[in-house]
Amino acid sequence: MISKITICNLALAQLGQAPISSLEQDDEKARRLNLFYDPVRDEVLRTHNWAFAGAEEPLALIETDNQNPGRYIYKYPAEALFVRRVFRRDGRGEALKFREVFRTDLHSRVLAVDCPRAYAEYTRRILDENLFDAAFVKSFSLALACDLAVALTGDSQLAAQILQKYTLSLDEARRSNMTENFCRADSSDAFTEVR
């Protein structure tokens, strides 16, 4: 079972630092980990199309764009950290051009799309560490270590080494994700036949 403290201690181990028992303890390591944890997690989620964080859903229409006939304004998906693709839900699944805009009158981001019934494929912000897959845990802990390296050790060379490890772990994750997606594409016909 993966926990926040496990990921933090993996990052500290990369730095040659002793583990912590709690993020509430009163020391520099815990303070820095609390500061960096959420932003680094979100950054690593955005960096790669992680299968465990992917979602697809119909977009909620807010209004038609009066200034651009044929353009529709949709609510930005609540769980979305990063919208990867907007598409039609027809036989082709055609990708659509879209624009992310901040609407001051709505105080939120919206998606402008030239399609009346659009769907989005996006990366969700995952807060439950038990949902993380092993490749993500490795990449996330390395990214966290990289961001903490100079602050906790003063060693910029160590930070560069960890950055290199992080880059390699992302490449590994991309390769395994492509293999998994390829296998799923091959098995989908058999699944459809059974159904």
Task: State the main characteristics.
4 helices; 46% helix; four-stranded antiparallel sheet; 195 residues; alpha+beta
> pLDDT below 50 for ≥5 consecutive residues: which ranges?
183-195
- Mean pLDDT reading: 89
**How much strand content do the residues show?**
15-25%
- The total of helices stands at 4
Classify the helix fraction into a percent range. Answer: 40-55%
Overall 3D form:
elongated
What characterizes the major β-sheet? 4 strands, antiparallel
- In whole angstroms, how far apart are the ends? 34 Å
- Number of β-strand runs: 8
Q: List SSEs in N-to-C order.
A: HHEEEEEEEEHH
> Mind telling me the C-alpha Rg?
20 Å
Derived from helix and strand composition plus strand pairing, the structural class reads: alpha+beta
In which order are the strands of the major sheet placed?
Answer: 1-8-4-5
Q: Care to describe what's here?
A:
The chain is α+β, with helices and mostly antiparallel strands and 195 residues long. It is built from 4 helices and 8 strands, in the order ααββββββββαα. It has helices spanning 4-14, 28-47, 134-153, 156-194; strands at residues 54-58, 61-64, 72-75, 80-88, 95-96, 98-103, 108-113, 118-124. Strands 1-8-4-5 form a 4-stranded antiparallel β-sheet, covered by helices on one side. A 4-stranded antiparallel β-sheet has the order 2-3-7-6, with no helix packed on it. Helix 1 (4-14) packs across helix 3, helix 2 (28-47) packs across helix 3 and helix 3 (134-153) runs antiparallel to helix 4. It is elongated. It starts with a helix and ends with a helix. The relative contact order is 0.17. The model is unreliable at 183-195 (pLDDT under 50).
